[in-house]
């Protein structure tokens, strides 16, 4: 159960309206690393967590906080859009190219579609996409993704902080920066604890290590001109997983044959000269098995 309370987690009140900055701030709401992404990412990670206890409780605590961050950013955008664009403002823009250029930086959809409010979209107007989130069921993989999400989110918040001198906007962003600092550290600590509790190791998943080709699990292939990469700590020594030794392969050679596609189905009309013979599978629409039986019934 979620319970909404009217007070915001932190104040979101600009000193004055700024529709151009409201357009920019959309990135922190509906961008790939915005508040909607981390909200849904953490909610689905929590709902998909198979262990009642501290990890699920932590995920749901932060997920619920992020819902509040969505409301903070949405409220700030709405307040930045207050009074814009009024009819008088539009007339000024038509008369003054400088004013027109400034207003040209605002997002018309915030007015036309949202009635002077926020959109679930990024700063280019691209709609938020559920494919932005990571919720795999593997907590080690998910927590690494969470560190990256919080890092990117804090990076974008810092850039937006430097794009405004509005004290009210900066006040809210200072709070957001601090929470992103906490969350990065928190997920890093949670990764350590997963390992300390013996639930996960270093590599995700901690499985099939005896099935993979171990001889290919240690060498970095030098596939870009220059050898400076060999100067890093990843070029030699024990790997973090404690199972392998780093190495650098300076003259890697291909291990497979040419990547040639098979002969095409003639009913798909791909351009083909017949040099590889006829296709070995059934022609399109003549499938055997369940698909073919379904086709027969339908016809």
- Rg over CA atoms: 27 Å
DSSP E strands, number: 3
Shape: extended
**CATH-defined architecture of the largest domain:** Up-down Bundle
C-alpha termini separation: 50 Å
Kindly identify the CATH topology of the largest domain.
Ferritin
CATH superfamily assignment of the largest domain?
Answer: Ferritin, core subunit, four-helix bundle
For the record, the CATH class of the largest domain is: Mainly Alpha
Mean pLDDT, rounded to whole units? 91
Note the beta-strand portion: under 5%
Low-confidence stretches: none
- Largest sheet descriptor: 3 strands, mixed
Order of helices and strands: HHHHHHHHEEEH
Strand order of the largest sheet: 1-3-2
Q: Which structural class do the helices and strands define?
A: mainly alpha
Number of helices: 9
Tally of structural domains: 2
Portion of residues within helices: 40-55%
Describe what you observe in this structure.
By secondary structure, the protein is mainly alpha-helical. It has two domains: 178 residues, Ferritin, core subunit, four-helix bundle (Ferritin, Up-down Bundle); 36 residues, no CATH class. The chain contains nine helices and three strands, in the order ααααααααβββα. Strands 1-3-2 form a three-stranded mixed sheet, with no helix packed on it. Strand 2 and strand 3 form a beta hairpin. The chain is extended. It comes from Streptosporangium longisporum. InterPro entries: Ferritin-like, Ferritin-like_SF, Mn_catalase, Mn_catalase_dom. This is Manganese catalase family protein.
């Amino acid at each position: 159960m979620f319970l909404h309370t009217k007070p915001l987690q932190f104040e979101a009140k600009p000193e004055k309206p700024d529709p151009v900055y409201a357009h920019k701030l959309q990135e922190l709401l509906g961008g790939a690393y915005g508040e909607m992404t981390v909200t849904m990412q953490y909610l689905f990670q929590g709902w998909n967590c198979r262990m009642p206890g501290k990890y699920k409780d932590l995920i749901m605590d932060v997920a619920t906080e992020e819902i509040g961050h969505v409301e903070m950013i949405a409220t700030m955008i709405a307040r930045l859009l207050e009074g814009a664009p009024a009819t008088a403002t539009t007339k000024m823009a038509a008369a003054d190219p400088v004013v027109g250029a400034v207003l040209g930086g605002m997002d018309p959809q915030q007015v036309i579609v949202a009635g002077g409010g926020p959109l679930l979209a990024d700063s280019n107007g691209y709609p938020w996409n559920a494919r932005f989130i990571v919720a795999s069921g593997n907590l080690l993989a998910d927590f690494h993704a969470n560190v990256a999400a919080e890092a990117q989110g804090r990076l974008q918040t810092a850039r937006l902080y430097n794009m405004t001198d509005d004290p009210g906007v900066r006040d809210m962003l200072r709070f957001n920066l601090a929470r992103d600092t906490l969350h990065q550290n928190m997920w890093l600590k949670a990764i350590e604890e997963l390992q300390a509790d013996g639930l996960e190791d270093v590599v995700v998943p901690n499985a099939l290590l005896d099935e993979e080709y171990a001889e290919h699990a240690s060498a970095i292939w030098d596939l870009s001109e220059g050898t400076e990469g060999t100067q890093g700590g990843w070029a030699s020594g024990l790997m973090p997983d404690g199972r392998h030794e780093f190495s650098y392969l300076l003259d890697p050679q291909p291990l497979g044959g040419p990547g040639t596609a098979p002969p095409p189905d003639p009913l798909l009309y791909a351009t083909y000269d017949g040099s590889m013979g006829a296709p070995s599978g059934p022609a399109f629409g003549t499938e055997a098995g369940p698909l073919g039986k379904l086709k027969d019934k339908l016809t």
